[in-house]
Give the backbone structure.
Amino acid sequence: MLSAGGKHAVRVVYTNTTDGPTRLSAVKARFGKKKVTASTRGAIVRPGKSLPVDVPIPGTAKGSTDYRVRFVTSGDAVHQLAGTLSVPAADAIAEAGPLAQIDGAPPTASVGKDPGLSADVTLAWSQEALVVDVCVADDVQRQTFTGQKIWQGDSVQVALAPGFPGETVSAGAEYGAALTSSGAESVILRNMDGSPGTRTAATSTVTRDESAKKTHYRMTLPWAELTPTAADQRLLSVSVLVNDDDGGGRSFLAWGGGISNVKDSKQYKAVTLAD
């Protein structure tokens, strides 16, 4: 995530599972060989409550970096968590602009060069949702599936996870959109906690311009379904898959990875929410 000061940080959450209040005296972290301490000002965490703490990532953390976080609580008790963080170079971090500017904005990314299959991906955001806009140049529009099976035909899949790629051990949430026989359809393939998706408030518009041979997808994914990812964190990881089936079997284009062959948030792209 990005801290209030615009610095890269990992947001960790301490949850008090005891029967009494706990004083969180410090959060200490190590990124590679660099040690960092985040102040908690001696916060008192009530039973069953949680406290998020933003731990700044040192500028020396580059590429794939192992990290360990220690919560120091009342009585000098120590609780730990660990993981691997993938810190991309600054020029490898994409931007999502304000939703009001999405129409006419340059694409966040373009994939594919074949005139029969290519796509422009544009990301935008508001306080309510992340919007993923995908314009696909596709000479044949074909979708014979519905529901959880739409990925087998012409469709778009989007996967999201909190923070930098690999910051969370979960592969995050995954959504799909397609133009089916009954119109535009949105599905949630996986919840943010990794459980199978069922119902979603996400919406999609999908239109086909047959004369131009283009299919336009716009997916609106509410932040309320993406917890702990939130607009105020200004940083998340995203991967987009464009599925294509002209009748000879499914192929795809990808911006990022971690969707098609293996569910892996380390292969997603880092995205910041820009003003």
